[in-house]
Amino acid sequence: MALRTSSSFLSSTSSCSSLCFSFNPLLFSTQRRFTVSLSRSRRFFAMSAAAAENDGIFTSPEVAKSFDFSNEERIYKWWESQGYFKPNIDKGGDPFVVPMPPPNVTGSLHMGHAMFVTLEDIMIRYNRMKGRPTLWLPGTDHAGIATQLVVERMLAAEGVKRADLGRDEFTKRVWEWKQKYGGTITNQIKRLGASCDWTRERFTLDEQLSRAVVEAFIRLHEKGLIYQGSYMVNWSPNLQTAVSDLEVEYSEEPGTLYYIKYRVAGGSKSDYLTIATTRPETLFGDTAVAVNPQDERYAKFIGKQAIVPLTFGRHVPILSDKYVDKDFGTGVLKISPGHDHNDYLLARKLGLPILNVMNKDGTLNEVAGLYAGLDRFEARKKLWSDLEETGLAVKKEAHTSRVPRSQRGGEIIEPLVSKQWFVSMEPLAERALEAVSKGELTIMPERFEKIYNHWLSNIKDWCISRQLWWGHRIPVCSLWPFSTLGWPDESAEDFKRFYPTSVLETGHDILFFWVARMVMMGIEFTGTVPFSNVYLHGLIRDSQGRKMSKTLGNVIDPLDTIAEYGTDALRFTLALGTAGQDLNLSMERLTSNKAFTNKLWNAGKFILRNLPHQDDTLAWEALLAHKFDKVESVVKLPLPECWVVSKLHVLVDEVTASYEKLFFGDVGREIYDFFWADFADWYIEVSKARLYHSGDHSVASVSQAALIYIFGSILKLLHPFMPFVTEELWQALPSRQEALIVSAWPPTSLPRDIDSIKKFENLQALTRAIRNVRAEYAVEPAKLISASIVANPDVIQYISGEREVLALLSRLDLGNVNFAEAPPGDANQSVHVVASEGLEAYLPLSDMVDISAEVQRLSKRLVKMQAEYDGLMARLGSSSFVEKAPEDIVRGVREKAAEAEEKLTLTKNRLNFLKSKVLIAN
């Protein structure tokens, strides 16, 4: 997969969000960065100078118990002040550019923002360290609907309406609000560690961007791809504007199904059709009644006329169409094409007129007769009451409906025919579909290609006008000289008055579809696909898998989470998800990853405390002389160092490959497992034998060098995920020359010795086997025991070469650890363990336990265990219990009995083993 560069966008789709990748070399400006190169013997002493330069920004693990989250903001400001977020084109290579999906200027941080910031920042930091000129271009969206709504509410609190101010004064107030509150989301995004070049921050109403919008509008219009007409749109009565399909959220809500009689014209009183509707107030807009042609119940009425109730006898035709569902309601459909998307399409197919009964504010208009002026919901109540009085109301019953609500205001959206501006999408969609089919655009995970293709193959024309005062205004004056708009009798001024409040819709909608639109527009205006890859991730849900909502009270605030767990723990948790899959966010995960942060800190503390004194020049010369990038230097290392360095080099290759594939969950798990399972649990423990027990300065020196090298590499690999704690630890290391954020990524394909990995794994297996025996016999941790290690000569050679390590890790008495090719003479008085094929150990029982006392203890315990087991079996043997007790109770007793039987068997075996040793001893 070749990423030309990265453009990341984020907001939720039905189940996923997306990040996209593109290239724009015009975004770069020249910048130079100077690096000071120090000789090996002087690198350590540069640390004090750097610390002074940092002016207290960083805290060393040597003096702090744990990483202080309050340092995160200081570290961030230091990065920014040093210019590290700016692209460095002097490094060469393909630029990597991410235009931030601009969050709404009205917004405040939520977990969706935390997810996109984390993933995009991981990409940015990784590519920056890889040496690519890297730019993350930040910005905010003017959010026409949301911002206007916020300001109108603010004015309402002052007793002022938008209309009272006029457009110019209102937009002035919006700009004032933006200047005062619009930076909130930006500052919160910074708190997540977003390494954007804030000197290039953009706002979607900036003059340059506004000019680009006008240019795009005019170009599309000149090509005949923008037109104006009256079509069905989603109308927001409170906001007084059309909204996109993707700005409407549907929810299952309890409602009512109303059954109404429609009399058949010219028939008897018994000739009527009963329709079922959830919106009886729209009957004034009925232009037909339809039934299924195969519905025998109504065949005799097809071709006749129905009388619309409460309309003083208005007639509409009774038609047949297979679209009508015979099984819904009564199988009779009222067609109100001015107020229902499906009815609108059906009316256009059947050639029916469109009748609008709704004003823009949600009240009924003069077509509704006596009901004109009533709010749509008030009209519904009055209408039903009148239907009951006239005998036309049949019944009403509870019904769950799929209700469309405004994504912003939350009100119920009204389908309405309105004169708006539209973009013809089909020709644009064809080229966007080709981009995927030809491999110019890759969607990850691949299964989401179907969604992309389905949406573009069934795309509707895009309503781009909004009846708002805040936004990009439609450039009607610019268009008038070329006009093909269809009002030859009107002047430009008349035209402007006709659409005094229309602005262009440039909102995000649901991001996946916004990305598709970006692809279409990018191809249209540049001739090339703007992104090479689209990466989709899932939604963040609560620990129970529920979508976060204020209603459920399960919303987790990222800033609160950061205050308690730290930004690094939050980012690491979010990044461990699988592409395309939703992530259940639990406090347990956050707690675990906070512990990971502390483990990193403690590892750094251990390393720094065990380095030579800064004045010991000879020790530092020896330490810095060790190299790990050549085959000959790696194979000469002692076994533990050769093992851990080889494992690290394998890790670098695996992690780099996962970063390149955008498998961020794999990256996190691979680093976590190596650090915790290999480095912290094993090598740091091994190093204690070198540092505290060897007495050999050369052995200690190679261990110190390995600790610094490996830990520094871990910090580099982990930095894109956990930038703050890794930078703080990096600044404390004596070997670092520059900030971690701009340090070079570890090279791949470094040497590794697979044979040493296998050998050390044998040493690990032996250590685990001895530890298990100690645990089984409850040997006190401080007690050292003897051991006889039996293996073939080759194995004995490398195991015995690390006897100090084995003794330290296994708590063995170093003076009584013997190596041989055959079992010892007292093998029958020892516990025999097999670590691996050809590697065994014999551990004298007398070293671990008082055999006679242990036999007595186990004998007493066995009696008690047998009694408990017999009691459980007695209950299960009782037919009255098994047949009458609840099934879960019986199942629980069976499970306890099985567990008791297993423990009983193990205890008997151990007791018999100990008794045999007593007999042999006697």
TrEMBL record:
Residues 848-917 form a coiled coil. It comes from the Eukaryota. Keywords: Aminoacyl-tRNA synthetase, ATP-binding, Coiled coil, Ligase, Nucleotide-binding, Protein biosynthesis. Residues 850-914 form the Valyl-tRNA synthetase tRNA-binding arm domain. Residues 643-784 form the Methionyl/Valyl/Leucyl/Isoleucyl-tRNA synthetase anticodon-binding domain. GO terms for biological process: post-embryonic development; reproductive structure development; valyl-tRNA aminoacylation. Its EC number is 6.1.1.9. It holds the Pfam family tRNA-synt_1. One of its GO terms (molecular function) is ATP binding. It catalyses: tRNA(Val) + L-valine + ATP = L-valyl-tRNA(Val) + AMP + diphosphate. PROSITE patterns: AA_TRNA_LIGASE_I (PS00178), PROKAR_LIPOPROTEIN (PS51257). One of its GO terms (cellular component) is cytoplasm. The keyword Coiled coil applies. Belongs to the class-I aminoacyl-tRNA synthetase family. This is valine--tRNA ligase. It comes from Nicotiana tabacum.
